[in-house]
Amino acid sequence: MKKIRCVIWLFCLIPALCFAQNGAAANMVLVEWGTFQMGSSTGEANEQPVHTVVMHSFFMSKYEVTQGQWNQVMAKENPSNFKGDTLPVENVSWYEALEFCNRLSLQEGLTPVYRATKNRVTCNFNANGYRLPTEAEWEYAAKGGKKDYLVFTYSGGEKLDEVAWHHGNSGSKTHPVGTKAPNTLGLYDMSGNVWEWCWDRYGSYGNGDQTDPKGPSDGETRVRRGGGWFFGAQFLRSTVRSEFPPNNRSNYLGFRVCRSLT
Fold first, then answer.
1. If pLDDT is split at 50, 70 and 90, which confidence band does 210 have?
2. Contact at 8 Å (CB) between 38 and 139?
3. Which among 104, 105, 132 is positioned nearest to 215, based on CA atoms?
4. Potential cystine with 131: which of 86, 113, 114, 171 (Cβ 3.0-4.6 Å)?
5. Residue 20: its pLDDT value, please?
């Protein structure tokens, strides 16, 4: 836990750098309030049961965080295996993704959302800074929010090659963000390219209706969503969920940012 406190607290003291004009603030999409069916009755067991979720409005970045953005925000080396400013940053732990969010918030004069107490990291969802999406926010946005009356298998459509970089077309590497078709909200790469960290601890779904769920209160692993360049079609469905230790890194795992509508 001492390590966690250092990650979350010490970077808040480092002076901000100038963020590029094409940074996160210029590329946020409003995901409007709505109700959706979360999960899948035909998918894996951990995607069930299907349940009704009410989501309040929030902002989500159009693109996965790129290495160019990472380099401008973070005071540490680019960890990515596949190098390129327009490629998604990868090989990033969950804690490092939180660090990026807090640093970016400070650079834009916003209130950081993450803090570390003695036993855990907490998220102030009422703060106006950047954060990771919750798992429910991620799935709601991937499915197109309230704009999609037909829920596609993948984020943006049924033709996987048109909307995603995956095992069959990626050439075993990541690709510049936003080069496949977006979904109806204008969000890119929600399926494929790299998996994306979510805020939530990993756990089973409940049966009842929920409003703005934020995941279990306990658990060792965190949720990742969306599939990536190394994975086949079955892993790129919008309802697929997976868990990963928050300290671990992978060259097929990155993230995108959100902001609460405050």
1. very high
2. yes
3. 132
4. 113
5. 35
